[in-house]
Amino acid sequence: MRDVNDPEFTVGIVGAGVMGQGIAQVSIAGGMRAILFDAKEGAAEAGRREVFKRIDRLVEKKQLDNLVAATQKAQLSVASSLSDFSDCDTVVEAVVENLEVKRSIFTELEGIVADDAILATNTSSLPIASIARTCERPGRVAGMHFFNPVPLMRLVEIIEGPATTEAVADTLAALGDRMGRTAVKVKDSPGFLVNLGGRAYYTEALRMLDEGVATPSQIDAILTDCCGFRMGPFALMDLTGMDVNYPVSMIVYEGFLNDRRLATTPRHKLLYEAGRLGRKTRAGHFDYDEAGKPISTGDADYEPHGMPAQAVFLAEPSEALAGFCKEVGLSTMGADDGIEPILGYPVGEDATSYAVRLGIDPKRLVCVDLSANTAKRVTLMTAPGADPGMLDAVAGALRDAGRVITAIKDSPGFVALRMRAMIANLGTSVAEAGLAEPADIDTALKLGLNYPMGPLEMAEDLGLKTTLSVMERLQAITGDDRYRPTLWLRRRAMLDLPIRTPS
């Protein structure tokens, strides 16, 4: 096999669909030769034309000059059969997610390519060990998982199967770098890194929906406006499609032997079985028009009625609450007069538990989430049986201070705090299992899912002790093992160590 930096280094791509086209494009953009094959007659040539169209568009946008474009096009050829891959240094398979089909392709390739050529699969869900099992040289088999659209998504996961040699993984990582991707090494496991680490964003949102905490519009608005996520979980599920999201969720859940931290909800399954797949069917969590735009504007914003509050009593001494009140122009009372709203910030508790623990009037309690950005949107929460006038009074004052309000039902950890702690905890689970280096976990989730920060960074941002406390309270209040904190998180929080401290 040629050195990965050799100008003649050649990549074969099996499958000329969207992913195969993208892999071919980044290969030639990296200065390598690429050969595209598809079993369907004419598909490889059609795929090459699509790649050329994308290159032409880059020229039109002045992102690529004509000479470079011509050079790249000359590097991409089409194979009439797999036997044309005999000179390839690496072959990347990007066909349908069917184990037997992939095994068949790899078996055939082993009789064609050189003994030291690398065989990689772009699978997003099938174990590398299962694909390599029938190969004569399983040590040269690995995953090279790209993300769609390949030319725009900068991440590639290098998946090391149980037999994959270190040299093969290193070579694929270097190949990813030459393609202009950021390569992260991941141990073989269900969902690999991104599809595993990303489960919390979807499943916890679905869990809160099932508990009646908030609507899809409310949850999406809180997570985008207050936490910096590019898309809310429900809009994102609708974009990727329930036909993709639900099966992957089940593959990961069942692959980890029904670990509660990875469980989805019956509603998720119902949408999948009902064919409400999202934008592609014009109906998912939201309804869409023919252009793919949501039909309804949603119900995220709460419109208060009545007179805004001028003063509130703080449920407990709190610099965060006092600072927030000063910021929005709310006076704080030295003693409870039994009339005005009581403002609280429970960290991991629901309003009910908070009121009972502090012995305060739950009817007048209005809880505000100060764990995330409140400059644009503020989340308010009340206990069952609360006086709606108290919510209106606080919401009115915040509206007058230029904030948009989302009012949710009782929930341990509100929405933002609960979600971020859950993502952080799952990220530490990946670190605990040694599936990837801690720094790579953050990199992968930011590049692969456009998270505003990685899971371990979220734990740092919240504070390790706060993250641990939120998870412990969620587990205690719900009684659900889903929220058990990892030992990785617990030990570092208790010892006051950085989250990336190795075991």
UniProtKB/TrEMBL annotation:
GO terms for biological process: fatty acid metabolic process. Its EC number is 1.1.1.157. It comes from the Bacteria. The keyword Oxidoreductase applies. The keyword Chloroplast does not apply. Transmembrane segments: none annotated. Residues 10-188 form the 3-hydroxyacyl-CoA dehydrogenase NAD binding domain. One of its GO terms (molecular function) is NAD+ binding. It holds the Pfam family 3HCDH. Keywords: Oxidoreductase. Residues 191-288, 413-492 form the 3-hydroxyacyl-CoA dehydrogenase C-terminal domain. This is 3-hydroxybutyryl-CoA dehydrogenase. The lineage of its organism: Bacteria, Pseudomonadati, Pseudomonadota, Alphaproteobacteria, Hyphomicrobiales.
